[in-house]
Specification:
Low-confidence stretches: 1-28
Number of domains: 2
Radius of gyration: 19 Å
CATH topology of the largest domain: Glutaredoxin
CATH superfamily of the largest domain: Glutaredoxin
Number of strands: 7
Mean pLDDT: 84
Length: 173
């Protein structure tokens, strides 16, 4: 009988301790800025094969959303690392979404095939609404790390610090 009472008290004390911690710290151990905004994933975007992709379908996954272009040297440099990250962490809940802002669909398709891009490549050209929802983006490439709950944890403009992105992704998974 005394043991049951001890368990209840210990459980209650643990619950109070956890409740006193910031929610984000408990959920992702500091992987997200506490003042981070929620991503607007209420978009349907076509992929390079003409299929509709519903961004809301990825809620509950960790998302690496990358705005890029074939003419952008830093974009071309970081895409192979995103291919690697997707290959290693997809089974754990990571999705990489590449949003091309190129004019030519045929050029994007050729580029994606040449690099063996293993993640969804979406067409962002003419989708100012999608770009505005993520603040522009101000430069290419611009990558966003989005937590499972839809929180935008980070934004990286220009060549992304790939080791930092990987640490953050691992913390969110």
């Amino acid at each position: 009988m005394a043991r049951a009472g001890f368990g209840i008290v210990t459980g209650a004390a643990l619950s109070l301790l956890i409740a006193a911690l910031p929610a984000r710290l408990v959920a992702v151990e500091g992987a997200c800025d506490p003042s981070a905004k929620t991503a607007n994933l209420d978009f349907t975007v076509r992929d390079i094969n003409g299929r509709n992709v519903f961004l809301t379908a990825y809620k509950g996954k960790v998302i690496l959303l990358d705005f890029w272009a074939t003419w952008c040297p830093p974009c071309r440099k970081e895409i192979p690392t995103f291919i690697d990250l997707y290959g290693r962490y997809h089974s754990l809940g990571l999705v990489v979404l590449g949003v091309s802002v190129d004019d030519s669909l045929s050029e994007v398709k050729h580029f994606a095939k040449k690099l063996n891009m293993n993640y969804p490549v979406l067409i962002g050209n003419g989708r100012d609404d999608l770009q505005r929802a993520f603040g522009g983006p101000p430069a290419f490439p611009t990558a966003f790390v989005i937590a499972r709950d839809g929180t935008i944890c980070s934004q990286y403009s220009g060549l992304a610090p790939l080791d930092q992105i990987e640490r953050q992704i691992k913390a969110l998974l």
